[in-house]
Every structure is written in structure tokens, then in C-alpha cells.
Amino acid sequence: MSKIFGAKIVSGLVFVFLISGCAAIPMKNVNTKDENGLTPLMYAARQNHTETVSNLIKAGANINEKNEDGWSALIFAANNGHTKIVSTLIKAGADVNVKDKIGATALIFAALKGSTETVAVLLKAGVNINEKNDDGWPALMVAVFTGHTEIVSALIKAGADVNVKDKIGATALMLAASEGHTEIISILIKAGADVNAKSQNGVTALMKAAHYGHAEIVDILKRAGARE
Q: Which fold has domain 1-69?
């Protein structure tokens, strides 16, 4: 199947360039979808074609259209760390709190991929910082799990709940203890994380650290008042 490569507006028509043969065809409906529900705007956002994104928006592209997985152009851009396109879409009215089929937001994807600049743009745009995916993980827990320290700090500074729990009662501190992220452990504790919080099955951050042999984290937690 041909894929969108670029787009220009000429005499009121959108000329879309296709990878196969690079032929230019006029497209009156810029919101046409492929078999997976992707629109030209989604293709351009995913591939970091900034000018094409702007041209498609000017031509009337539906900014908040989703594909079959619930991904909008904003999610495609955020997932790939295309900060300039994220900004362009937001200025054009993109829903910053849009969720895909598993409840993940653009902020969650940016945190997952370690896209610090994209996270900053989304936070400035007023994204719901504590929005969770279907597993109960907000962006903070995702950033903690993946070890993106700078993003963890940025999220906390912006008001992320450091004691939020997922569907099984696990906290960000437990995730950091499991993964051995020592610096993040200290950041979370300084921000007020409950060192004695328990999951639904009674597991604590101290237990996680001990289980995985993270001796330094065990010491940090104990000094911070962890009892079990």
C-alpha cells in the first residue's frame, strides 16, 4: 500500500505525494484513512514531516482523528519524540488528554520514550498529569519504571502524585526499588513518597529492593523510615 510522504496546497487542493512512484495526486478529503485507520496527518506526524503537518492542518485535517488503536496524530508525534510537531498540533487544538485503546496518553508515551522536551511541552499545555492507563499507571510510574530520572523530576515538580497506586496497589517507589533506580528512589522519598506503603498483597518497596538484591536502596529506605 502507498504511504503518505508529503503534502502541499495548490489552488485549494491538497496534493499528497506517495512513496510508490512519488506521484502527486489531488486529495479533496485530507481525512481519508488507510486500512489501519491512519490519516495523512498521522503519517506526517509519525515521520516528523513538520511542513506537511502544517499544510494538512491548514487544509482542514481532523487533528483529533484516531486510528484503530486509538492513536491520534498527537500520540504518534509524542511517541516518537517529535516535539515541534507536538507543539504545532497543540496550537492547532489537539486534545492533549487523548487516550488510546489501552488508556495511554501522549504524556505517558513521551515518558515511556524518555522524550524530556516533549514532556515539557505537554505539561505546559496543561495535560492531566495524573491520568492513568488501563493498568493504573500514570506518566510518573512509567518514567520511574523506565529510569528516566529527568522526567521523573519534571513530573513531580509539575504536581504528579508520588503516592499514586496502580490496579494492584503498587507505587512508584516500589517500581524504583524493583528496578534498582537509586537516584529516583531518593527523589521520590524527598518528594514525600510513603516508604511503608503496601500493595494489595502486602508487598513494600523495602521487600522489592531486598528481593532483587539492591543493597544501597535497602539502606536508603531504612534510613527514610521503612520498617518492613
A: 1.25.40
